[in-house]
Structure formats: structure tokens, C-alpha cells
Amino acid sequence: TTILVLNGPNLGRLGSREPEVYGSQTLADIGADLASSVPDGVEIDLRQTDDEGELVGWLHEAVDRGTPVVLNPAAFTHYSYALRDAAAQLKTAGVPLVEVHLSNPHAREAFRHTSVISGVATGVIAGFGADSYRLAIDWLLRHP
Ligand code: DQA
Asked: Which reaction is the catalytic activity of this chain (predicted)?
């Protein structure tokens, strides 16, 4: 089994980006921890892009391959209808999508309180730092 772990804009800057909000681990650190925490035979395919179109394309790939997705849409969470429409196709296809956030957007600025993705996500995990990803993967592995 493969799980796609997709990350949106500025998440490639983790480690140095607002560490008081996002922690001091890089995305590569988080990916390595995730890869070492899953059972044998499970592959974590972790990707990051600052480009909306690339992220949309990766969701199409997940639809076509039936690959479950953990998605941190980053700032796209709050305004990308293109990403939402791509995520909706996963829902139609019955492919699970877990939306994750390192921080708890609801405890932050008002513009972060809206997610255009959540309405088509299977579920949302936010506020647990890198553990948000781990919790999402745990759930996916228990619901194959
Ligand atoms: C984030 C929260 C978003 O509001 C923000 O734009 C991000 C990261 C998080 O993981 O906490 O880039 O998705």
C-alpha cells in the first residue's frame, strides 16, 4: 500500500519558517519519522509544492490510482476552490482524504477559520504538530 502525503505552499520551509508556530522539524524530518513508523509494506509518498496546479494534478493521480491521501493544503486551505474541486473527485471515487494541519487554524487569525477543503474531506486533524500526520496515517491504515 502507498499513502500519498501531499503538502502545499511554504511547507518546504518548515524548520526555519515560524518555528514557534510550526516547530523546528523540517518536512524531510517529518517524512523520515512517518516512514519509519509505518508497518513493512506501507510506502509513504511525501511530496511538497508551492504550485496549485501541481497539487491539483497529484490529487487527480490519487483519484485515478485509488491512493489514499493525507493533505496539508497550507494556505490553499482557505481559498483554493480548484483544490476543493479536485478533492471532491476523491470523495466521489470513495478514496479517503484526511486534511491535516500542524497548527490549529481555529486558534489563529480569522482568515484561517475557513477551510474550503473540509467539506469534501473524510476528516480533519489539526493542532497536533507533526503528530497530525501520524494520526491521519494511523486512521488510514486501520480503514484500508
Ligand atoms: C497550515 C495552516 C495554514 O493556515 C497555513 O497557511 C499553513 C500551514 C498548518 O499546517 O498549520 O501554511 O496548514
From this structure: 3-dehydroquinate = 3-dehydroshikimate + H2O
CATH at residue 117: 3.40.50.9100
One-letter identity of residue 62: A
Domain count, the chain: 1
Taking only the tens place, the pLDDT of each residue in 53-98 is: 999 999 999 999 999 999 999 999 999 999 999 999 999 999 999 9
- Identify the residue whose C-alpha is closest to ligand 1 atom 1: 74
pTM for this entry: 0.97
Interface predicted TM-score (ipTM) of this complex, two decimals:
0.99
Domain boundaries, position 128: 2-142
- Whether ligand 1 lies within 6 angstroms of the CB of 6 is answered as no
- What is the CA(66)–ligand 1 centre distance, in A? 26
